[in-house]
């Protein structure tokens, strides 16, 4: 069986600290390394569309949220688990590129609604199709059964850590 970098790390810990059980690194170390590799692959693809990963995330969130078009900036921040400042910076870049608009909600002038422009919608539709193809390429070493099992296992772990789904539209602005 081929060995990866995590195998070496676990073996090194076993030699350096045989009193410790380093087996959690077999999972969490691989998840961490896989995340970094996947993010590098994602960013390479997003660059082809003139986007940074965070910009893709905002456009994708707006696109999949569905009608009515638009979300509050606060809901975007909560959904992405980024600070309001980080979302503001992303929105500034996307507004400058012509991919989103920020308009005051006529029902509540303290609320800003962010929506895709037609150019933003067209871009995210092309980018997400390419992203899904790229994701399939990344996962190609696993057959569908393995992918399903891994997805179910990771869901169980995430839920055990309190990462439950919430509709970003259902969260009211404070």
From TrEMBL:
<keyword id="KW-0804">Transcription</keyword>
<keyword id="KW-0238">DNA-binding</keyword>
<dbReference type="InterPro" id="IPR036388">
    <property type="entry name" value="WH-like_DNA-bd_sf"/>
</dbReference>
<dbReference type="GO" id="GO:0003677">
    <property type="term" value="F:DNA binding"/>
</dbReference>
<dbReference type="InterPro" id="IPR023187">
    <property type="entry name" value="Tscrpt_reg_MarR-type_CS"/>
</dbReference>
<dbReference type="InterPro" id="IPR039422">
    <property type="entry name" value="MarR/SlyA-like"/>
</dbReference>
<feature type="domain" description="HTH marR-type">
    <location>
        <begin position="24"/>
        <end position="159"/>
    </location>
</feature>
<dbReference type="InterPro" id="IPR000835">
    <property type="entry name" value="HTH_MarR-typ"/>
</dbReference>
<keyword id="KW-0805">Transcription regulation</keyword>
<dbReference type="GO" id="GO:0003700">
    <property type="term" value="F:DNA-binding transcription factor activity"/>
</dbReference>
<dbReference type="Pfam" id="PF12802">
    <property type="entry name" value="MarR_2"/>
</dbReference>
<dbReference type="InterPro" id="IPR036390">
    <property type="entry name" value="WH_DNA-bd_sf"/>
</dbReference>
<dbReference type="GO" id="GO:0006950">
    <property type="term" value="P:response to stress"/>
</dbReference>
<protein>
    <submittedName>
        <fullName>MarR family transcriptional regulator</fullName>
    </submittedName>
</protein>
């Amino acid at each position: 069986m081929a060995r990866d970098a995590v195998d070496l790390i676990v073996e090194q810990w076993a030699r350096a600290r045989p009193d410790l059980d380093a087996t959690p690194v077999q999972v969490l170390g691989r998840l961490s390394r896989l995340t970094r590799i996947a993010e590098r692959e994602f960013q390479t693809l997003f660059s082809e569309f003139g986007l940074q990963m965070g910009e893709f995330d905002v456009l994708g969130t707006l696109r999949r949220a569905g009608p009515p078009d638009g979300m509050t900036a606060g809901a975007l921040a909560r959904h992405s688990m980024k600070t309001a400042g980080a979302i503001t910076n992303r929105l500034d870049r996307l507004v400058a590129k012509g991919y989103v608009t920020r308009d005051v909600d006529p029902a509540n002038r303290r609320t800003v609604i962010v929506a895709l422009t037609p150019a933003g919608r067209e871009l995210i539709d092309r980018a997400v199709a390419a992203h899904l193809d790229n994701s399939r390429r990344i996962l190609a070493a696993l057959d569908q059964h393995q992918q399903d099992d891994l997805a179910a296992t990771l869901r169980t772990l995430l839920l055990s850590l309190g990462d439950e789904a919430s509709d970003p539209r259902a969260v009211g602005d404070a």
